[in-house]
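User: I'm preparing a small set of examples for a lab meeting where we compare how different chains pack in three dimensions. I only have the primary sequence for this one, and I'd like the structure in token form so I can line it up with the others. Please keep the answer compact; I'll paste it straight into my notes.
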Amino acid sequence: MIPKLPPPAELLDLMPDAVCVVDAEGHILFVSAGFERIVGYTSDEVVGRRIFELVHPDDRAATMQQAEQVMTGALQLHFRNRYVHKNGHSVDIQWSARWVPEHGVRIGVAHEVTELRRAERELEHLATHDPLTGLPNRHRLQHELQYAIAHAAQTGDGLAVLYLDLDGFKGINDRCGHDVGDRLLGEVAQRLQHGLRQGDLVARVGGDEFVALLPGCRDTQAAHAIAQSLRASLCPPCTLPEGVFRLDASVGIACFPVDGSDPDALLAYADHAMYAAKRNGRGLGDPAAPRDVASGP
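Assistant: Understood. Below is the structure token output for the 297-residue chain.
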């Protein structure tokens, strides 16, 4: 018996990936069985519909732009977007597509990457956040501060940076152990987050050092008021099985552009101002004091 190849559609249905054929306007002409496995819709449910209807609304514009590029003859490899599954959840997909002008169709092959994207997001979070407190880390702070400086320079909305160092934490950590210290740091992180305005950011940049980024903060007096509020949020005692602990913080303030025009300069000024306040035993610099590092903000 001479072997006979099955119809191409039957071969395509064996693929775990989805094969999709659409016309120039994006109307679906054919989908393989893999499309249903990934997106949940059968061929009968989607043929004739525009494929962009199934794309996640946030990714629709970029997907349409990519489709236009494919129709100019560009071979699209590894484009990612999200589709809305028939059950309502999002599905991350990676596409390869090409335009076949002699037939007037686009052919795409899609591979689901939902789990891969989840793992990538976890790695991205680990790279930009402190594992103990969940706050942004120094790397994320630098990125956000650079963006905030550019925005403040363009709009004149103002920008302030607060550098906080916990008072009394080292003694507690040495006396009671790192487990207690870690739990206190977690409590401090929560209190600082709750004490900030919407749009502000607080990062952990060292053992017991935190930096608050205050976009739109116009002057030292406004930053001073927020710093006082943050210190007040730390004052209530923290009760743990090991005892009742009280913390405070020394705070240094730097304002853009008076105290620095780039991330390193602003952080350095706020850091020096914090140590000046700690040495003077004030906890927080006087907003009316001269603007120099020696006296603090």
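A couple of notes for your slides: The first helix runs from residue 8 to 13. Residues 292-297 have pLDDT under 50 and may be disordered.

User: Perfect, thanks.
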